[in-house]
Amino acid sequence: MVTQKEIQSVHLSEIIDSAMDAIISLDSEFRVIIFNHAAEQMFGYHASEMLGKSLKKILPTDVQNKHDEILRRFILTASPNYRGKTHGKIRGVRSNGEEFPIEAAISKSQIDNEIILTAILRDVTEERKNNLKMEGLLKENDYILKEIHHRVKNNMFTIFSLLQMQSSEASSIEAKDSLIDAAGRVRSMMTLYDKLYRNEEMLQSLNLKEYLPTLTADIVGIFPSTSPIQIETDIYDVSLSIKQLTPLGIILNEFITNSMKHAFTGRENRKIKIQAFFENETVTIVYEDNGVGFHEDNIASNSRGFGLQMVNLLVSQLNGTIKSEKTEGTKFIIEFKI
Length: 338
Prior knowledge:
The strands form three sheets. Strands 1, 2, 3, 4, 5 and 6 form a six-stranded antiparallel β-sheet that branches. A five-stranded mixed β-sheet has the order 8-10-11-13-12, with helices on one face. 46% of the residues lie in helices and 24% in strands.
């Protein structure tokens, strides 16, 4: 009569032999006692060629001696299992001499006072090839994107330079002002582009603390001035996405341009202050100057209020709100969620 233990043994043997991963068990002398069907397919040896033998014939020559020492140390540890941490760097050797990368997990158990080691092995040759192919594609894609960004940045600089040249040659004040306004808007995008793509990482977001002071200085620098402009910033440490930074940069360009063109006429003490706060998932941008004060028809472009229309449109893109407050000069407050 077949015993329950014999039934369990046969059942376990069938499970091991039908496993998709190679399973190899060793006794305390590191001789093979189990070599399942997947192991046969992986290494090209029949189980009868491996049972009772060491693993040396399926290991590279340079690691054969190290292998036994690693197993001895593992037996002495308290850990019941060991997983190869160098994915794809553990190597096996097929019967035809071909070396290939393996992912391995080893466990130990005790049966009748003898330590039994069992390794579950997976051939990661194709996975490694795919990873290398993917890395190559990513590098190629990264190179293409960097080349595109480089060209876009150069094109923006060309447009900016042309607008400045045209503004200096314009015969009418209206044309000169319009060209300077357009140059400032391009400059705001150039500053953002430079911050995002100057390093190896092509960032998808940028910290306001890094962006706003540079943007302000760049826009102020477009306008010749006999008196220096004092720039004060109090910027909270918060990052915004490109989608939010682009309209925000143009909005601030409109404010700064308006201040530089209209606010400081006849004034020696000139100051621009920008604050940015973050609370309850809401960003608050406060812009103010100490000029003559805000008039709707004066902001950024022309008497028809194109600049203000643009600001309102860009604030709506941010799903935000804008308001002005009566102060010594001009003060705008913008709020939007992130």
